Amino acid sequence: MRPSLAILISGRGSNMAAILGQAQAEDWAADFCLVLSNNPDAPGLQTAADYGIPTAVLNHRSYRGRRPEYDADLAARLQAAGVTWVILAGFMRILGPRFTQPFAGRILNIHPSLLPLYPGLNTHQRAIDAGDSVAGCTVHLVDETLDGGRRLAQAEVPVLPGDDANSLAARVLQQEHRLYPQVVRDLIEERLGLEPAASEHRQHAKEAVK
Ligand code: GRF
Q1: Do residues 114 and 155 make contact, with C-beta atoms less than 8 angstroms apart?
Q2: Measured from the CB, is residue 176 less than 6 Å from ligand 1?
């Protein structure tokens, strides 16, 4: 069965564009069924539409103080679209169990640091402040911990004398655009050993021995 992917964004969507561009150029055996943003003004929504991908907005501002409901509605939206894999690409919301449980083991994210270093925000400034000579990015599975799920791939870049957060971010971003499409392609070609239906199989097996 062709995998069905959703990409979640909040802003410019350059990682999303790198993935969609490579998918189109290489004719990947996967369907990008939805690009969804929590931010109605995300420029990446237009980029997705230009690729012919259906887009949607689920605005977190309509859910003030009701984060679990947001997560549940987001999960329902993706389930209704038949999504097998969720690709987070600059999606600036922390997802709770009502989203991560239904999609357990099937959510990927890219983070601009060499995890486990610097989960959270301001990664580039933190790397510079720490005097690191190497920075980079990580593609990882998403669970309920902050940027703490299983790491799938990393790319390194040097921190150069005179770097500020912007110059370092730009150098890391070039690697993000190379790494993330490569990992998503490996996922589709089943080279990562991740099986979308594995948790369902486990569930059925448990029911069978009851
Ligand atoms: C990237 O740096 C990514 O690592 C982080 O958010 C940024 C998103 O950029 N999670 P873009 O929207 O893909 O251009």
Answers
A1: no
A2: yes
